[in-house]
Design the sequence.
């Protein structure tokens, strides 16, 4: 098993959380150029919820390595909960982040991250917040995250274009920070009885809408795109049941037929207490072809909800919760996207691949390893 060696001239290995001055000293590279191949094709792999501390389960890396070698993607998205609350020091945070980026760094594959609800779980101990994490991720040679949109809630809200074979933009990637947890109170009221996850805020929805319009004006057409967020939208549940209020098998049968749903749903969707309105904005603009999340580890379904794919990427990390009993690790996997610039909408297919496809040990136990070496900065 190849665990992914450290790439030369990558991130600084610091034993303390980088403050503003320290972050400014991290290496900076010219962003890798993203472009469709000569055959007009482009492949994206999404890893979700690697979610481990500095002593990662070896099978998480084995799975990432196997998927990368099999699918040979042009871009990888680490879509939130990249680490968990077990990191008690800044060095352990850096080691946990480094573990999950080395499979791409060692292969020279461009990659980007979003944040989930667990990335800052031990902030009170390690003092490394998401802004500092983003600076650390961006210090790697093959990272393609751009600076977070100024004045917008969260970290890493951004978009970047993928050029076609003619050198003009053919596809766009949206990355949004879906937040962590709802506050204890809002306007003097608590959230008892409501979901206590976070939600996309109005300024994020507005930023997407305005930026989408600006891209259309600049390029004189809408650029087809995918959006990656960690926490699902409420519309995922509506789609699954073909209803807002119904929760019966008959409701799901109607939703599955109407929306062409494939994949598994083994736990309730866990959105926040408010519907952000992002889906309405997306459907109105018509450029986003799919919204994909993680968060709910044992859901892998995808469907077409009124012209927009809504889907899960399952869960990559073996160190997190999964199914019950001996089936705990059955759904560890990744989602793959195939793009063809000659096709209408560009996105031509998406599918899941699983650890079982690669003969990886699915035993329901812990197989943690020592941290991968931090690269020399």
Sequence:
């Amino acid at each position: 098993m190849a665990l992914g060696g450290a790439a030369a001239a990558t991130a600084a290995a610091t034993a303390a959380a980088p403050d503003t001055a320290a972050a400014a000293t991290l290496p900076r590279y010219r962003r890798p150029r993203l472009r469709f191949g000569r055959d007009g094709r482009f492949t994206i792999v999404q890893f979700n919820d690697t979610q481990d501390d500095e002593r990662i389960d070896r099978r998480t890396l084995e799975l990432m390595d196997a998927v990368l070698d099999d699918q040979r993607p042009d871009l990888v998205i680490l879509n939130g909960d990249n680490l968990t609350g077990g990191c008690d020091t800044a060095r352990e945070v850096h080691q946990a982040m480094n573990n999950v980026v080395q499979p791409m760094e060692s292969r020279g594959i461009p990659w980007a991250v979003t944040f989930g609800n667990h990335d800052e779980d031990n902030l009170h101990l390690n003092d490394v917040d998401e802004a500092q994490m983003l600076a650390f991720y961006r210090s790697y040679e093959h990272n393609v995250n751009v600076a977070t949109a100024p004045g917008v809630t969260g970290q890493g809200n951004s978009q970047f274009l993928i050029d076609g074979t003619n050198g003009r933009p053919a596809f766009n990637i949206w990355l949004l920070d879906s937040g962590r947890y709802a506050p204890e109170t809002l306007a003097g009221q608590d959230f008892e009885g409501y979901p206590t996850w976070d939600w996309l805020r109005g300024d994020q929805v507005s930023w997407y809408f305005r930026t989408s319009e600006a891209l259309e004006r600049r390029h004189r057409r809408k650029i087809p795109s995918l959006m990656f967020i960690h926490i699902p939208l409420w519309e995922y549940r509506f789609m699954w049941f073909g209803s807002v209020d119904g929760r019966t098998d008959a409701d799901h049968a109607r939703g599955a037929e109407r929306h062409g749903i494939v994949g598994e749903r083994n736990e309730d969707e866990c959105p926040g207490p408010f519907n952000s309105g992002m889906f309405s904005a997306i459907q109105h603009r018509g450029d986003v072809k799919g919204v994909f999340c993680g968060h709910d580890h044992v859901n892998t379904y995808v469907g077409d909800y009124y012209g927009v794919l809504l889907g899960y990427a399952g869960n990559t990390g073996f160190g997190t919760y999964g199914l019950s009993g001996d089936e705990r690790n059955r759904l560890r996997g990744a989602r793959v996207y195939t793009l063809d610039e000659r096709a209408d909408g560009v996105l031509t297919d998406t599918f899941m691949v699983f650890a079982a496809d690669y003969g990886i040990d699915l035993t329901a136990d812990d197989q943690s390893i020592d941290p991968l070496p931090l690269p020399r900065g």
Summary: The first strand starts at residue 41 and ends at 47. The CA atoms of residues 79 and 364 lie 24 Å apart. The longest helix spans residues 202-219.
